[in-house]
Amino acid sequence: MELTLERIEQRVGAATWLYPLDLTLVPLAVTVLLGATQAGKTTLMRVMAGLDAPAKGRVLADGNDVTGKPVRERDVAMVYQQFINYPSMTVAGNIASPLKLRGEKNVAARVAELAAKLHIEPFLRRLPAELSGGQQQRVALARALAKNAPLMLLDEPLVNLDYKLREELRNELTQLFASGRSTVVYATTEPTEALLLGGCTAVLDAGELLQYGPTAEVFHRPASIRVARAFSDPPMNLIPAEASAGGVTLRGGVALALPLPATGAPALTVGIRAGALRVRAREGDLVLPGKVELAEISGSDTFLHAETAIGELVAQLTGVHQFTLGEPVALHLDPRQAYVFDAAGALLRAPVRE
Asked: How far apart are CA 119 and CA 110, in angstroms?
């Protein structure tokens, strides 16, 4: 399905939940709706599905105006955060329900195929209440896949699962989407999840669509500071700076030699991703002496918070590193890895990708 939203706007009472936006989904691809809680992701998905009619604008499906057409009259499958299954039906019955509604043949074979893909074959005769949360969500996903709808909407389907289950299902979903025949929309608050799913990403913030494009392009070239904030975990380090001859000058007189387009205002912001900072030196690095304020170990990474001459910085270091609070530390940065934003927050310069 080619889904197009034209000047869609949504209000609830006096509050605006979605500001006017235009969006055309890439057919047969995954589009990730990325944004913090209350960014407008669920509101936008409900408009896409036909659960809610927009206050203004049109929804087009394959060129046909379906604005206001209820969800039961649209060929859409949706998976929610909660594990929504038919409680009185077995797992097999849940998965088979959309197949039977379409009058398909070989229902049992199709149910067995989907159950195998989602690793729930041992539970086909059980009721949903007899399953764990992760297993119930797999059943809901299998039923949505069985519908084989041209548009599949997934509203943070893994958010209520533990870390290990999220990792497993995320990898499986990436493979299932690649082999399917649906246009997929997947809402998440996690930048890492958007990168893993690939496809395209639409960044939302406070009801505004900030940027849409191929996921890697949006990540590496965020159009604004707002996009960079939404698409960085941990958050991008943002440092006030001023334009100077041959580049920018940071707090404490630290200079970065960066070619920049001409700007009308000297006030700039330099952005440094946490993963671009290191504790090991390379030729041509800018060295930022400082002291350790906090060191957090998360999985296979260490997040180092350090106070430096240009302000507090967060570095994401691969591996487990031991630091003592207050000890001196030197952070190293390749200046070419810095982002520069103008006074209005628009992107002026992004790192050159090799």
From this structure: 14
What is the bridge-based pairing of β-strands 64-65 and 255-256? Answer: unpaired
Rg (the chain; Cα; Å): 24
Per-residue pLDDT of 73-96, as tens digits, reads 888 988 887 778 899 999 999 999
Please choose, from the candidates 234, 220, 312, the residue with its C-alpha nearest in 3D space to the C-alpha of residue 274: 234
C-alpha torsion 60→81→228→203, nearest 10: 0
- Which residue intervals of 32-130 are DSSP H helices? 41-49, 91-101, 107-117
Which tokens go with 315?
Answer: 């570095």
Percent of the chain past pLDDT 90, that is, above it, reads: 65
The phi, psi pair for 48, rounded to 5°, reads -60, -40
Q: Both tokens of residue 319?
A: 């591996």
pTM summary value: 0.89
Q: Residue 234, preceding bond cis, omega within 30 degrees?
A: yes
Q: Which residues contact 350 (CB under 8 A, 6 or more apart)?
A: 220, 221, 222, 339
Quick one: tokens of 257? 């030699």
CA-nearest of 312, 88, 93, 341 to 223 is: 341
DSSP letters of 106-132?
A: -HHHHHHHHHHHTT-GGGTTS-GGGS-
The H or E element that residue 133 is part of is helix 133-147
Cα(36)–Cα(231) distance, integer angstroms: 10
